[in-house]
Amino acid sequence: MLKELKLKQKKLQKMLETVESRLADPVSGRLEVVARRNKTEYYKCNGPNQNSSRTRTYLKHTDLDEARRLAQAAYDKKAMKMIREQIEAADAFLKRWDEGKLKALYGKMAPERRQLIDPVEIDDDTYVAKWLDKQYQPGRFDPGYPELITNNGERVRSKSEKIIADELLRRGIPYLYEYPFVIEGRTVRPDFYLLNVRTRQAFIMELLGMMDDPDYAKNNIKKLNSYAREGFIPGKNLILLYETHDQPVDIAVFRMLMDTYLK
Predict the structure, then answer these.
(1) Among 137, 171, 181, 230, which residue has the fewest nearby CB atoms (within 10 Å)?
(2) How far, in Å, CA of 253 to CA of 259, rounded?
(3) 94 in helix, strand or coil?
(4) Partners of 40 in the β-ladder
């Protein structure tokens, strides 16, 4: 919520700069619009109100640019007032908002008390610990698989997976390796199951490592379609990486995806 509000603040500030820039070149007078049965008439008024008809000047079709300037100036003045009010309201809210206070309430209690409570909100460390506390058997490795161990102590299936796991650990992104899901009645083990701590949204990440193998590509198309039917959508909560035998995973792209979805 705070991220969205701060983005809205930036958008409002740009709006304010736009209307202030347009109002920097003042336009005298105001526009009066009269709707007739068959046409619309525009008048430029220099009086203080609509009753000052003696100062009213009819704007012909050739004067429509003047009508537009008057209409725009009137709109910009009202918009500027509203935008400033919204910016002030957002500033006041952010000054009073303390997101961590409620989260910390549960964590500050004694363990003996915590076990009696069902909290409405918990701090990030407690949430991550609970999220990681999943008991499952790791996938099997066929004989002859190389012994590749991550900095977090898991055995993985490729050098690329080790690079990814080590980068996730370095960034402090919680993950589970080959955590099993039941998808359409069968157990699948995505390469990584990830958590965005800030939003508390979980993601599946798959490294599709043999995309130049037609059978491998065909099987993974089926798997990705199964993911989609279960609600795991690329760009939403499914992150995909690719490589072939002679084209390793692009680590720069991987880091960009982490910045996009997991920051």
Answers:
(1) 137
(2) 10
(3) helix
(4) 35
CA 107 to chain centre: 28
Q: Let me know how long the chain is.
A: 263
Paired residues of 110 in beta bridges: none
Name, in order, each residue with C-beta under 8 angstroms of 195's C-beta and a sequence gap of 6 or more: 128, 131, 173, 174, 175, 201, 202, 203
Q: Measured in whole angstroms, how far is the alpha carbon of residue 48 from the centre of its chain? A: 48
Provide the whole-model pTM: 0.65
Please choose, from the candidates 63, 68, 29, the residue with its C-alpha nearest in 3D space to the C-alpha of residue 45. 29
Statement: residue 237 has pLDDT above 70: yes
Q: Cα–chain-centroid distance for residue 210?
A: 31
Contact criterion met (CB below 8 Å) for 70 and 31: yes
Q: Which residues of 232-245 are buried (b: 16+ CB within 10 A; e: fewer)?
A: beeeebbbebebee
Residues 106 and 121: their CA atoms lie apart, in Å, by 8
How far are the Cα atoms of 167, 181, 248 from residue 170, in angstroms, in the given order? Answer: 5, 26, 21
Which amino acid is it at 38?
N
